[in-house]
């Protein structure tokens, strides 16, 4: 493990400038405009944001520091097959714009889960919002853990201290800024992320030649795009990445409260759709650059792998190791890289604090307590601060989840798939009821969490690595061959299928239970003979509107006849 490495003056200046800039943006929006005195401004930026910062923010929401660290390690040790997931992400955009976004935008609710109470009832709303809270707590533990790896690798600073310092800084910043600060810091921090990744590619290109990067990657088996296996236990295939990636990202962009809340910061549905569409090319560019950076690092270390040589202890440390080991000859590059990681994590955590504060106030406190309206903005900021401190505690558990990228996608697959199933049942069917969706969500969550975190599970097999070019006193770690077939089958299923399994399970079980276990729907309890079309996806909404108009027309004709 690399220890004792310290920044130069230039690195510290870059780091300090980045942190100060991010904080100043938060401070600026705290004392400008409406000064974050209302929840409408603090949580939704007064719903008047421009397209550009929202589109960038949608990209930076979930794959920030994790994208850089986990993505580069993924392509270094497992090959470039993972880039295929961008096809699945692309398919998400038209589906979200056409079927899910119009419902949320039409309702204009602060909490996404208010929809579930309108469609099903109060119990499923609380259950789903609690599930979302669990998902975001786990995810942000990973996000906070990511920069701690960088600090430990670059400066030798103990991981415990790293998590504590970064976590407290994130909590302070997220409590101050409000949604406007979150969106605008995302723009700054996204450029820093991209700059950090591109600097790795440029340095490797100068050192070994850009043409040789792809040549060496091909010789090392890293350009592996041809796995079309239908075996669900194969970690990455075209089917798992396109289908599993589609469902996982659909759960993020279509129904995840953090994303929906950001989309609702613009004034019209048309602008909201533009935000989504513009976020895809930005995300794809960052994803592709991250993939290439992993191959570039492989070209540098193909003859002396740092993990096999014992220089690092986890795959996710390969990029920061390259920055401080091979690139430290260029003043400022290490500082730029760590600034990119830090700023990305700050943005993600601040947005999550903001989103969870909204859920807490509207789904929990607002339901159970009579709060003086003048106290609500302060309670919202207090909730954001509290969640920041919770992220601190959970960050220490993230190291037990495996690689960062896989850990993040595992969390979203296990929780996001079932939640997507609940919203889909609500928007695409009229027969689904609260009892059916509740049973579907609870059993679906139990299934996906069991599949995701059941133990023991077989280790992930890496592509061949070498230590032939290392000093003579370095010998590769001997990794015994593992017979994966000896492990329980469900624990061998690729993490990329988890979201799809949870999604389909909730749709099937929720439908069956709803049809067998009938109950009054909210509109029936309210004495209405038909559901509100605004609660359904546009195609079904139009059908319901036509039926309602036909009933009204028939009723009018009947009244005239009498």
Provide a descriptive summary of the structure in words.
This protein has 562 residues and is mainly α. It has a single domain (9-405), classed as Up-down Bundle (Sodium/glucose cotransporter), CATH 1.20.1730.10. 70% of the residues lie in helices and 0% in strands. It has 21 helices and no strands. It has helices at residues 9-30, 39-44, 51-60, 65-77, 85-107, 114-119, 122-155, 159-208, 210-219, 238-255, 257-263, 269-301, 318-325, 333-368, 376-395, 404-428, 434-453, 489-492, 498-516, 522-525, 538-561. The longest helix is centred in the N-terminal third of the chain and has 50 residues, at 159-208. It is globular and about 100 Å long. The N and C termini lie far apart (89 Å). 51% of the residues are buried. The model has no long low-confidence stretch (mean pLDDT 84).
What attributes characterize this protein structure?
Sodium/glucose cotransporter; 562 residues; mainly alpha
Largest pleated sheet? none
The H-and-E topology, N to C, reads as HHHHHHHHHHHHHHHHHHHHH
| Average pLDDT metric | 84
State the share of residues found in helices, binned by percent.
Answer: 55-70%
CATH class: Mainly Alpha
What does the radius of gyration come to? 25 Å
Please name the CATH topology.
Sodium/glucose cotransporter
What is the H level of CATH, i.e. the homologous superfamily?
Sodium/glucose cotransporter
Task: Compute the separation of the termini in Å.
Answer: 89 Å
